[in-house]
Amino acid sequence: MKNRKKIIILHCVFNYVRFCYKDMEHKKLEKKRSLYSTILIHCFALAHAFVVVLFRHFNLPDEIPLTILTVLMIVLVTQLYKFPYDLTAVMALLFCFAGFFIGTKGGEWIMNNSSGWIKNNANVVVSFLVTEFDGWVTYFVVRSIHFTNINSE
């Protein structure tokens, strides 16, 4: 009887330690994913701004490269959390349309309501800001769904 109690107590302690270890590993993985997401979003925002400057310099249309960069950023951020591909495609399509609309209207608003270097570089500023917005919304949506799935298990 005493041995059985000892075994039960040891089993409980072992399960508690195992749970704490899994929780610690999950927190480390989440910090790493968060850092990678942050780096990806900022790098893609800078890449968007660079593409806008480069294509405007050569008087070329920049819609296709910006769309490709947006889709690639969304796919990379969502796959850090192993998000389903069908929902990734929906998010990419939605954010490409939203980014185009917000970028166009935001650029017009900046052109009409500002002066100086911001007015001359409105397309660069808006492209950077819209990419940051799209990236962070993607990150928070994917992360919240990821945590909901983990907590339900």
Descriptive terms for the model:
about 150 residues, mainly alpha, about 0% strand, elongated
Portion in helices: over 70%
Largest sheet: none
Average pLDDT figure: 85
Tally of separate domains: 1
Order of helices and strands: HHHHH
Radius of gyration: 23 Å
- The end-to-end distance, rounded to whole angstroms, is 35 Å
Categorize the overall geometry. Answer: elongated
Put simply, the count of helices is 5
Quaternary arrangement of the chains shown? Answer: single chain
Care to count the β-strands?
A: 0
Give the percentage of residues in beta strands. under 5%
- Identify low-pLDDT runs: none
Derived structural class? mainly alpha
Structure notes:
The protein is elongated. α1 runs antiparallel to α2, α1 (2-57) packs antiparallel against α5 and α3 packs antiparallel against α5. The protein has one domain (28-152). The model has no long low-confidence stretch (mean pLDDT 85). Helices cover 90% and strands 0% of the residues. The chain is mainly α and 153 residues long. It contains 5 helices and no strands.
Summarize the entry for a quick read:
This protein has 153 residues and is mainly α. Helices cover 90% and strands 0% of the residues.
Question: How would the blueprint of this fold be written?
Answer:
Elements (H helix, E strand, L loop, with lengths): L1 H56 L5 H18 L4 H29 L3 H4 L1 H31 L1
Helix pairs in contact: 1-2, 1-5, 2-3, 2-5, 3-5
